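ugh finaly. both done.
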Amino acid sequence: MADRSARHPGARAEAVAAWLLALPALLLMWVMLLGPAVAVLLLSFTDWNLGEPEMGWAGIGNYLQLADDPVFWQSLRNTLIYVGVSVPMTVGLGLGAALLVESVGRGRAFYRAAYFLPVASTLLAMALVWEFMFHPTVGFVTQAFRAIGLPTTDWLQNPDTALLALAVIGIWQNLGLAMVLFVAGLQGIPRDLYEALAMDGADGAWERFRRVTWPMLGPALVFVVAIIAIRSFQVFDTVAVLTEGGPNKATEVLLHTMVQEGFRFLRTAYGAAITVVFLVFTLAITVAQTVLLDRRAHYG
């Protein structure tokens, strides 16, 4: 190693130049991403409330309080249920939509844009449309259930259905994103594999999907699941606009609890502790995605 610099006199200069070129990006990363995360982590170990002139060290007091807080556990449970419902449905429907769109001969660009429109729309505005659709008397969902003889309810005010109704909205919003990501994965599959499969006499749609499409979509599938799971963990808008965590905390989720504690009740340090828990879940999903993608890098 000592002789490496002697053999390559310009290596050290290149390394210094590389660090200097990367320095603005590193500083921006610290200012915009890592710095605030570290600040929130440190704040969660204090007893500071918004507006107070002094800040004291509380250690793990906020986390011990979280462990005894039934509202926190309810919000965590609701968040996990929301993710458990919305992610599989979004991924499954997104894959189906991608396969259908790619099989269309004409108008493919139109269908892609139509499916992606909910992702680009303002969810706060669309929440008002969904509020009308879930209306207990004149809403489209209620009318549809009545037309096929199924029982109806006040979807957003019934504790048994409110969280599922919000999950339906989340599925509708993220479906287009999952479809676009799967379309990118489908377009990356070599056509030669399908031709080779046809030469082997297995050219049916199911055989093409089972033997080629599904195995080759492995990395894309892991990426889509991770992205949709992170977006589902971030559910807040629909809760804040449509239910405000009700009825009876049936739709209380982590981000809504954090905002309530940190900005409505001004318990800033306690809200920071909830944020750290949220960041831990998000980091766990990201790490799992990285590990799984690395394992499936060769489409094994």
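ok and the 2nd:
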Amino acid sequence: MTKNIESRFPENFLWGGALAASQCEGAALEDGKKWTTGDAMPYGVFGDVVIPPPENYLKKEAIDFYHRYKDDVKLFAEMGFKMLRISISWARIFPNGDEQEPNEKGLAFYDSLIDELRKYGIEPMITLVHFEIPLHLATEYGGWTNRKMIDFYQHFVETVYTRYKDKVTYWLTFNEINVILDAPFNGGGIQGKAEEIDKSVLYQAIHHQFVSSALATKIGHEINPNFKIGCMVANSPYYPLTPNPDDILEAMNRDRETLFFADVHARGKYPGYMKRYFAENEIHIEMTEEDKELMQKHTVDFISFSYYMSYCATADEALNIQELGNVKSTVKNPYLKASDWGWQIDPKGLRYALNQFYDRYQLPLFIVENGLGAVDELVSDEEGSYTVIDDYRIDYLKTHLQQVSEAMKDGVELLGYTSWGPIDMVSNSVSEMKKRYGFIYVDKHNDCSGTLERYKKKSFNWYKEVIASNGESLFDEEK
């Protein structure tokens, strides 16, 4: 029995899922593609890049989406997806990143993938750079520390915008752009630990990405005025551990590490608190007047973000006991439970994050990643088929989506929700299959064994019903 209230999700709400090329496609060196920084993860993070990687290299084949995408898209369509967020591997289009002529086989692959989505009425959202650039750009140019990257990126985005201008409306310029602060190789193709890299060098790389993002927004709107171009940040809001004013300020400063990236994309300029931070830490950025004008004039159409957990902050060293988190560690919140990977589970934090962003920017928002990574067990059901009884995932997603509804009641304008990831994929940073997010189980394991067969988890039909009811099934009363 469903509660008799008006619909909680708008009629045109974009339900779906999100993938990343380096984590699902495989075919690492097929059809002209060359190595990427995503292929080198985690081997390139803290030292010399290891290429070719070890034999037991999961991303080389990944889940073989490159060859199996038609079957996988059919499963997404069966769930009723309105949108699939995908990324384009830059190295499929320009294998080294600095060529003039694109690789036609790479462009043709994404043509075919996009056409397959459109066949089922699934709107594609494309992330232009999702934690991978051609490895050549990292080893030969220093990644995003080099201003030449702006020109290489411009050529890449012009090429794909022009190719897919009549097929794609929604674009994201960089995935989780703020992650570069804690994972420079992952986010920027910059080798070394974040704490060992000169802050001026790191923020200069970030500035090059800001300029590139503004340029991509400008070019996109010129090629097709109907394009909707957004930024994407990893959003984990901070709570003060106590009401101590020092903890309040510490949480504010920690939040600003994320808000800074959205501020520049949405407001077109560096905020005052960052100018103070630069001055106090002797951080110097080379920034032209043209850069400033470009960022000011070409702000994003919407803001998208990932949300997996909230963080806590304290100024008290005695209480600053760190727990595992997404990319970085956090102070343990005594009121929250954690996932198998120690990520604190906080559905209400998603409502808080949505309100925080909408109050600040008054721009449409999009949740493009949210999900639960867990150790799933494939079991035989009553009919002799295989499945995963992932009630824990259903509970995680249900409670988070209920809070999404609350945020929209608060007045937040939300365009859609794409869960991470609708099918099991290789994890990005540590390159393993053990941590699974999908509604679809893939028979592939950390030692590279497995048949690559796909099996529907219990959550598959649950999410199918959520989409079919436009979210109303989330509020069905317990019987």
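summary for the 2nd one i guess: The two ends are 8 Å apart (CA to CA).
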